[in-house]
Amino acid sequence: MGVAMSEEMLRVENLHVSVEGTSIIKGLNLTIHRGEIHVIMGRNGAGKSTLANVVMGHPAYEITQGTIHFQGQPLEELAVFERARAGMFLSFQYPAVIPGVQVGTFLKKSVASVRDDPPKGRAFRKELNGAMAELEMDKSFLSRYVNDGFSGGEKKRLEILQMLLLKPNLALLDETDSGLDIDALRIVSKGINKIAPEAGCLIITHYQRLLDHVKPHFVHAMIDGAIVKTGGPELALELEERGYDWLDVAA
């Protein structure tokens, strides 16, 4: 078991990224193993969401230097859909609305497109019902259109429900906790904790409060496109209390 847990999920080395000629990530290094929860905190514009988008293959971002490996394979060799099939999952900060597509249909198609051996009718329903019960979601959700008229909390819950069903090897969670009330935060955290032992998790957040429910192994402070300090959960408390100015000086 120990060997499996140390399997490398993501390795980012000397990464430099630009958008429309503007340099955003400047020499970032990060390694995540299976079973590890990493948290990145930083001011707006530090490059946190850019990192998640680049790893997932967003076409607007250009890697100008450095490498990203997923489970030992260079990521530039994989198209976005291949990254998803290989077990990468990105929970969006602002999930898209898809009018006319029911949640139940959407989830079934998502699972079928990612898994080599997708569960059939009854088996899928059992799995879906179990995941929805875990997240305290009502069955009426399934007949609604994807994110159409959803509250912020409902959108985030649907993201976590997708994650539970897709069972990723690497979960990238971009501000999944923003705008959530205490109950929704607790439920979203439950979903993260459920997949975390079998996956590598990268959580991008501004707030320490999520970390009352999800215990990270590593907390990274990001300033101006690079990680300038790494610590344990105590670093998140320090960042919330002191801000980032003291790190600017240290950097």
Textual characterization of the structure:
This protein has 251 residues and is an alpha/beta fold. It has a domain at 2-96 and 172-250: P-loop containing nucleotide triphosphate hydrolases (Rossmann fold). The protein is built from 9 helices and 12 strands. It has helices at 2-5, 48-56, 80-85, 103-114, 121-134, 152-166, 182-195, 233-242, 245-250, and strands spanning 8-19, 22-33, 37-42, 62-70, 73-74, 88-91, 98-102, 145-146, 170-174, 200-204, 218-223, 226-231. The strands form 3 sheets. Strands 6-9-10-3-11-12 form a 6-stranded mixed beta sheet, sandwiched between helices. It has a 4-stranded antiparallel beta sheet with strand order 2-1-4-5, covered by helices on one side. Helix 6 packs parallel to helix 7 (182-195). The chain is globular, with a radius of gyration of 18 Å. The chain starts with a helix and ends with a helix. Residues 1-5 have low confidence and may be disordered.
Keywords:
251 residues; Rossmann fold; globular; 36% helix; alpha/beta; 9 helices; six-stranded mixed sheet
Computed over alpha carbons, the radius of gyration is: 18 Å
Distance, first to last CA = 38 Å
Largest sheet: 6 strands, mixed
CATH H-level superfamily title of the domain at 2-96 and 172-250:
P-loop containing nucleotide triphosphate hydrolases
**Shape field:** globular
In spatial order, strands of the major sheet run 6-9-10-3-11-12
> How many β strands by DSSP?
12
Which architecture of the domain at 2-96 and 172-250 does the CATH hierarchy give at level 2?
A: 3-Layer(aba) Sandwich
CATH topology group of the domain at 2-96 and 172-250: Rossmann fold
Average pLDDT confidence is: 90
